[in-house]
Specification:
By secondary structure, the chain is mainly alpha-helical. The protein has one domain. Helices cover 81% and strands 0% of the residues. The mean pLDDT is 89.
Length: 108
């Protein structure tokens, strides 16, 4: 799963330039920060030998912030930025939830 979240992070970093919303500083930095956090946490996930999976909690919170950021930070009128972050956020949340839920199911 770390490859998927790493890819989502890369998409979030490239999206402002690909979908032409890099002119808006708030949307640009939101995408860059979300992408950076996803890439760093997926690297930690890939290298981690522990079974705690704290990385998925970070990814889930990052996905949640990606979904709400366009509305809270005021760039929801930029539809390309809005939909990019919402889709990346929802896929990230579902990935983290699936991994955390399957981990808890294995413990029981």
């Amino acid at each position: 799963m770390y490859l998927l979240t790493g890819f989502l992070g890369l998409v979030a970093i490239v999206a402002p330039y690909l979908f032409n919303y890099s002119f808006d500083a708030v949307a640009l930095w939101t995408s860059l920060i979300v992408g950076g956090v996803l890439i760093v946490s997926s690297i930690f996930e890939g290298l981690a030998a522990d079974r705690e999976r704290w990385e998925y909690w970070v990814m889930g919170l990052t996905g949640l912030s990606a979904v709400f950021a366009p509305f809270v930070l005021g760039f929801s009128t930029l539809t390309s930025a809005l939909w990019t972050l919402v889709i990346i956020g929802v896929v990230t949340i579902l990935t983290a939830w699936t991994k955390l839920y399957s981990r808890r199911a294995q413990v029981r």
